[in-house]
Amino acid sequence: MTFTRIAALAATTALTATAAFAQDDRAGWPSSFTVGTASQGGTFFVYGAGWANLVADELGISGGAEVTGGPMQNMSLVHTGEAQFGLTTMGPAAESLAGTNPIAPGLQMTNACAMFPMYQTPFSVTVLSSTGIEDIADIPAGARIGFGPAGSSSDTYFPLMLEALGVEFERRNGGWDDLGGQLQDGLLDVIAFAAGVPIPTVSQLEVQTDVNIIEFTEEEQATIIAQFPVAAFDIPVETYSTLTAPARSVAMWNFAIANCDLPESFVYAVTDIIMSDNARMVNIHSSASETLPEHWDKNTSLMWHPGAARWFIENAGAEIGADMIHGG
Fold first, then answer.
1. Same domain for 274 and 177
2. Which sign does the torsion angle of CA 62, 111, 102, 127 carry?
3. Of 91, 85, 135, 136, which is closest to residue 114 (Cα–Cα)?
4. What number of CA atoms fall less than 13 Å from residue 71's CA on the CB side?
5. Does an H or E element contain 116, and which?
6. Residue 313, Cβ neighbours under 10 Å: how many?
């Protein structure tokens, strides 16, 4: 499986011991690591590249982000060990465990373990204001809708959601930056995003043109919640300059994942760096305001990596049973 390296590896000339993790504690640690993210222009890439560089700097190990197809592919890459870490969403994680990941149908991806909670992914619709589309019901039959990279959370769930709401469309895939350009050029009518907010592509579109960010009606929101593994969510008004009020949406939680065979002390160290200083994470991306220890319980599907489980038990009072810890 091929993916493109984007972030330059942050490296040091030696593995510098930190006060918390002495050289003697590094038995079996990898000399480098990668974090599977998603396409450029999406929140996964910005968030994942940021924490990869943070961990690399703190631990003195080469590390960087990889552009991938998103949550489904990341589950596969981490399961096989092609990537040490990755970002996923709870829906795709559950499907991967059940063996229904379209990348490898029938393969139960049980070697990808939960590491830490990230943030909620809202599902939102963006159009050019010039289209006159202001509600889901305004989307014309046969509209060309971009759903993000094939196999992403958006591509997995948003087409089904819109079908449940009676929308007829032509399905298009691509990276978020590419789809944003197609929307501006009139090659797409709608982009259906599933990404942490603010979405870089939407923020850029706001600067370059007039857009409408379409919210769900209460009835549409209820229909989606009844049929899909999502919860109610309001996109805060301050997220985008286009909004004049919170936008009604639905959302799904995201988690960072680790290959289950990584050393416990290594994953504990990585988790500690991410979870111990939220301000640094928020500086990477504002969606990390939800990257908080108390959200450990948002993992509803995955077995925990032993190193991550130990961190949350020791530092967040998490009640994680042995039956939910890999190898426990």
1. no
2. negative
3. 85
4. 30
5. strand 112-128
6. 15
User: What length is written for the chain?
Assistant: 328
The predicted model scores a pTM of 0.80
Examine the domain organization and report whether 91 and 130 are in the same domain: no
Which pair of structure tokens corresponds to residue 64? 């960087």
For residue 7, name the pLDDT band (cuts at 50, 70, 90). Answer: very low
Peptide bond before residue 102 is cis, with ω within 30 degrees of 0: no
**Which stretch of DSSP H or E encloses residue 34?**
strand 32-36
Domain final residue, candidates 235, 252, 269: 252
- Residues 17, 55, single domain; the answer is yes
Q: Which two tokens stand for residue 151?
A: 């196999």
From 252, 287, 308, give the residue that closes a domain.
252
- CATH number for the domain harbouring residue 301: 3.40.190.10
Do 131 and 113 lie in one domain? The reply is no
**What does the pLDDT look like over 179-225, one tens digit per residue?**
999 999 999 999 999 988 999 999 999 999 999 999 999 999 999 99
- Eight-class DSSP state of 186: T
